[in-house]
TrEMBL record:
Pfam families: Molybdop_Fe4S4, Molybdopterin. Its cofactor is [4Fe-4S] cluster. Residues 439-458, 654-675, 918-951 are annotated as: Disordered. Residues 16-77 form the 4Fe-4S Mo/W bis-MGD-type domain. GO terms for cellular component: cell envelope. Keywords: 4Fe-4S, Iron, Iron-sulfur, Metal-binding, Oxidoreductase. Gene3D superfamilies: 2.40.40.20, 3.30.200.210, 3.40.50.740, Dimethylsulfoxide Reductase, domain 2. The keyword Aminoacyl-tRNA synthetase does not apply. This is Formate dehydrogenase. It is found in: Cell envelope. InterPro entries: Asp_de-COase-like_dom_sf, Mopterin_OxRdtase, Mopterin_OxRdtase_4Fe-4S_dom. Residues 925-941 have a biased composition (Polar residues).
Amino acid sequence: MATDSARVNTSPHVSDEIRKTTCYMCACRCGINVHLRKDENGKPKVRYIEGNRDHPINKGVLCAKGSAGIMQHYSPARLKAPMKRVGERGEGKFEEISWDEALELATSWLKPVREKDPKKLAFFTGRDQSQSLTGWWAQNFGTPNFAAHGGFCSVNMAAGGIYTFGGAFWEFGAPDWGKSELFMIFGVAEDHDSNPIKLGLSKLKARGKKIIGVNPVRTGYNAIADEWVGITPGTDGLFVLSIVHELLKAGRIDIDYLIRYTNAPWLVIDDPKAKDHGLFLRDKDGNAQVIDRKTGKIAAYNSKDVKPDLKGEIDLKNGRKAVPSFTLLAQKYLDDRYAPENVAEETGVPASQTRRIAAEIAHAAFEKEVVIDQPWTDMKGEKHEKMIGRPVAFHAMRGISAHSNGFQTCRSIHLLQILIGSIDSPGGFRFKPPYPRPVSAQPAPHGGNIPNTPLKGPQLGFMRGPEGLLLEEDGVTPQRIDKAYSWDAPMSSHGLMHMVIANAHARDPYGIDVLFMYMANMSWNSSMNSSGVMKMLTNKDENGEYIIPKLIYSDAYSSEMVAFADLILPDTTYLERHDAISALDRPISEPEALCDAIRWPVIEPDREVRGFQSVLLDLGARLGLPAMTNEDGTPKFKDYADYIQNHERKPGVGPLLGWRGKDGSKTGRGEPNPNQIDAYIKNGGFSETHVPAEALYFKHANAAWQNWAVEMGLQDAPVENVFQLYLEPMRKFQLCAEGKAEPQPPETHRQRILNCFDPLPDWYPPFEGASINLADFPYHALTQRPAAMYHSWGSQNAWLRQIHGHNPMYIPGEICDEVGLKDGDWAYIISHHGKIKVPVKRMNAVNGKTMWTWNAIGKRKGAWALSAKAPETEKGFLLNHIINELLPPKGDGHRWSNSDPITGQAAWFDLRVRVEKAPAEDEVSQPQMDAQNNPVGSPDQTVEYGKEWTK
């Protein structure tokens, strides 16, 4: 390892050495300085962690999670060595084995699957930040059954944005904090992207700009907002479309922006009896047609000098007609259905508030436009002297995504941004490199199942239409175990991780031989119906064999899921590993700069653990996967660090952008550099390449951006990105459901596709509420993630536990008064699926129909090396136990997954409940599971830190 002066501090009073790497205490991926000091035995120990002020993401800011990374690294819950199960599943009884035995055993389980039926391996990862590797590995294995956690986290966010305009909130874009005049934030918890958001909000506050928080709960960002909209859960889309209604009525939209950058002028065929009704009118070359304002005739939208019209009607042959999609859009949203007074009862937002916010948006966008004196040239060759922006910015996350109507809600917010012309304009939402990437620049999903043969492409991608569904020859049966890209969830860009275990247990559409999981706590907080999932993992068939025969699991810590594994491959902590935070995967760029980063072993493991990515490459070589094996059968990559530096996804393009080329002189494109990781280490663990000034805005239509993106290896050629307000693939699915096109869905699915696949952003009530008697379950129940925690990783951390040691159910005052509850009481929270017992805390800063709690605080006894009476196990709880992975029966014998019907996003936040006061004699949360055996030693221990430095 290099020991350059940038990492060495000569002052013994502070630390012996400072090593710079990337945090992993949430998905923010901030730069950190890890201070090391040798103990009395001469071994380096982590003394403290601070933010790296030179890092482009956090600029030195570090949250409680990041600072507490010390206790994540020294956690008593760390796994120590490979283990194989010796008791029954779920008991937590294991024996330690060597790595050779563990890898030989895993290979013996995986090899026959690949040789006979590769789809019988289901490989799913949790909060894995190396999905470009794990997905590539699964593709080379040949199984279609791969996905990461996005399907139960935020696929609606990603898919809704990319299908609409080629980007999305959070990792793919950010508000223009320094220029925005008005900012709206929807459903964002404080754990995701927290440091950049805090920095951004502070800029808005310093400039005196208004922040509007839209969230049923007023905590965190919403607590510091200038205005809080206490929305009823699942109605954000209706609220946004009501704002759209007001803007259209007032004519406060950016017509020029719509004509230049969107498909608003594209002609839609209006012939209700025809097979192409609702599709775009195209010429023989496939170009969408528009009405030319100069001639009144049809022309290709991309014809030189054409001036498209947003209104009008064109007569076609045989009595057919076509109208611009904007005409359909205006007709839809000008309907009184969306008038503020007509949606107020559903949304919980007074009509006067909706109207005022719409007026404020219009005022900020059109009366306070931002002008930057920067010439630029668009993709049509037209030169612009200035960059003119509509300074209204939006940000949203899981709170709107995790509903069964989340995809359409995400699209509704993007529709609003586009109508006012604020996407990638000064003061609005800005793309982060390598985005924008419209669907045309994204891969399509790939299926298949040929023994000993890699898939022809990645498992995950973006559906163009029904012809791409991953179905068996009968046109109905899904190819994938999670039913992604089938009629159940046709546009499921991230898969349905929450359905894998349930479907495999039901052998619907088939059973599997091996379930291989990484960092996915599916027996506890990462699944719906946690109690049921535990049974599914342990149930046996009529022959006494486990229904899910073999389960390989990798994690760094003794989580609840570890107890259900047959084979455990222990991972390192994030301070002991190599990682590539890659533009091929989940980028960390900012709008002004293309950035990526690494992690590297700033401290060596003191246990028999290995980084999972290196283990995966080892397994790939043992299995003879061609991409991981040389011609003589030897491994192609020594470990993950070797892969990071030498793997090429295509010639000249690899996991890292910086210091490419044999001498490290190239950026973006270039040959592998054997010293690339060392170059990153010397630079503080990251690379940063600034976007040229003329490419900073309007990237979707900016020739300078396109040329630079090609130069950097982000794309191979210029990519057209016309914003899709009217989403034609959705209409294609409707045509299939109408019986006018092939393939056709089964009868059970027709009406759902007709109802939900509107090509214009739409709103429909969340499914759970529509499936039950609301008089029995009148309230909403939600989880939010606290700023000090990131899922279950944080809530086993000795320092962070002092901030949140247990979680009450926060219940609105009016409900408390009705039920007779006060602070400290206990209550039963009851859904159609089950009942939990929880401690209560009164709260008035919350939507009056909504109760909520912190997520992933509750723990199972015996897990995470917590003490037997830990507050997380006795007063902590999960809502997961009362959320079913399936919707209530409809009486037709078919059970739908509790998901968005378009993308398969888990609908965590559709939960409806009632509340009853519970007796106080037993102040322990319910349900309580039997304690697991703890494979890492006695949980009854005192965690002390730094004692050796107190001399």
